[in-house]
Amino acid sequence: MKAFCQRIVGMPYFDHFIIALILLNSLVLGLETSSFLTSHFENWFYWIHKIILAFFIIEALIKITAVAPQWNRYFGNGWNLFDFSIIILSLIPMTGQFAMIARLVRLLRILRLVSTIPELRLIVTTLIRSIPSMGHILVLSGILFYIYGILGYHLFHQHDPELWGSFGLSLLTLFRVITLEDWTDVMYVAMELSPWAWTYFVSFVIIGTFVVINLFIAVVLNNLQDAKAAQEIKTERELTITKEPESELTHLLDQIKATQQKMLELQTELEKKLKT
């Protein structure tokens, strides 16, 4: 049974089938937002969800059986734990007070695409690895917002209290500016007070948008390279582990064949001597 499950997991069509199920689940979730379709095909949608969940349970059982009794090879993998948790949560009944939770869990099944497609797993791993470095950039952004927020309040709160009337409003306005969403309208209103107000906004856009965001991109790209290198090392180790037993078996078979050949040669010589 274990060998059979290992062969199934090793098939490329196995992952493709799971991806197809996730996409089908995503399609059904989107169709359920239509009241017309729900009123006519609600029963069909219900059974499609049940069948997809059954296949997900079978998939988990196959993967667990394939690594038995080394359970840590399955449960020690964060992506497998994520998939297993979604399956367990999907068993929540769709009735009563848990109905909304069950619907939210169905949405989480779409995230299984991340755990199924290696490229998406690499991107998520990169983002997670980037969190510590991003923390320092966020601190730098916080300092920048704090300085410009206080400065903007003192410069423009009397002229434009709707956008700069308090420190909190100043931060919200700066967030609007840094997203580059109609920030020039905010600047032109401030320039009615002083024609030099553009220096405040242009300097903030240059520092906040182009410099800080590029720092984020640089950190992500750097960690992406590290994640790719770590993935390549892990793949090489797995290949080495799988190849070593095969090479040992091949060596033993060669020795057995050589011994058999020597035995045949000795048998032939003994038969010749007995005949003479």
TrEMBL record:
Q: Where does it localize? A: Membrane
Any keyword Membrane? Answer: yes
Q: What is the topology of this protein in the membrane according to its UniProt annotation?
A: Multi-pass membrane protein
The chain positions of domain Ion transport read 12-231
| Keywords assigned | Coiled coil, Membrane, Transmembrane, Transmembrane helix
The protein here is known as Polycystin cation channel protein
Q: GO cellular component terms?
A: voltage-gated sodium channel complex
User: Lineage, please?
Assistant: Bacteria, Bacillati, Bacillota, Clostridia, Eubacteriales
Report the source organism.
Heliorestis convoluta
